[in-house]
Amino acid sequence: MMTLIEKLAEFPVKTVTVQGQQQAYREAGQGDYLVLLHGISSGSASWVNQLEVLSHHFHVIAWDAPGYGKSDELLTDQPNATDYAKRLAALFDVLKIEKAIVVGHSLGALQASAFAALYPERVEHLVVANLAQGYQCHDKQTQIQVFEKRPKMLKELGAKGMAESRGPHLIYKQEPQALALVSEVMQQLTLQGFTHASYLLAYDEIRNYLTDLKVPCTVIAGQQDQITPALGIQELAQELQLEQRFVIEDAGHLSYVDQPQAFNQIMLTIQEQS
What pLDDT tens digit does each residue of the chain (274 aa) get? Predict the structure, then answer.
């Protein structure tokens, strides 16, 4: 039986040129598009369970965010979520994706929300999972700490050391294959992409994009998530009147890696609604 890392060979990284920049992604299946955006410490490889299973129901695209994997970094050192959303729109154009279910996990939820706000006509349904809310409304000292924390850790520990230190905190079940996958993905982090993503986290805010949303939205939380706790996500969803909510039991921050069957079933439920 193949490990999750071995299965990645079935979904090799592809690259295209968008607006003069290289953009990387993995792809599987055909039919309705399902576009997957990873979080700050991750990459397209983390979606291997979805590429394998959901490709029987969707045309799955999992991108490597700008500055991750083989994707060229953004051309600004102070990006907000709209900068990532515009790169995603350019990828949609090149791949001729008219409309998709767009799924954003953690910091990817901030990027996906900006995409839905800017291009509602291209979003069949928005899914925000284990969402990072952003620190735009916090005090300046907190913002600086958030911006500097992760790049500093990467510089000091290196990608391998950071994967060993931080990876287990993203998974609740501590299943060996899942931990190995998370470690493999984190070891591909680059300082520039990580720094840009940290700036986005520190200085933007998801309410900028989820307020007055024009597309259907589903919110997913992990019951055991210690990084973006379920309670805070549920309170935000209630505040913004986002009424379709799921809490996945026994799932930590990387809910789609921790409990892929439960996560995938939510995607199929959304497809039935669309």
Answer: 899 999 999 999 999 999 999 999 999 999 999 999 999 999 999 999 999 999 999 999 999 999 999 999 999 999 999 999 999 999 999 999 999 999 999 999 999 999 999 999 999 999 999 999 999 999 999 999 999 999 999 999 999 999 999 999 999 999 999 999 999 999 999 999 999 999 999 999 999 999 999 999 999 999 999 999 999 999 999 999 998 999 999 999 999 999 999 999 999 999 998 8
Residue partners of 127: CB distance under 8 A and separation at least 6: 101, 102, 103, 104, 112, 217, 218, 219, 220, 266, 267, 270
Angular region, 12: left φ>0, alpha ψ -120 to 50, beta rest = beta
Is the whole-model pTM more than 0.70? yes
From the list 65, 120, 54, 69, the residue with the least C-alpha distance to 88 is 65
Q: Contact 50/256 with Cβ under 8 angstroms?
A: yes
Distance from C-alpha of 105 to C-alpha of 41, rounded to nearest angstrom: 11
Question: Which domains are seen in the chain, by residue range?
Answer: 4-273 (3.40.50.1820)
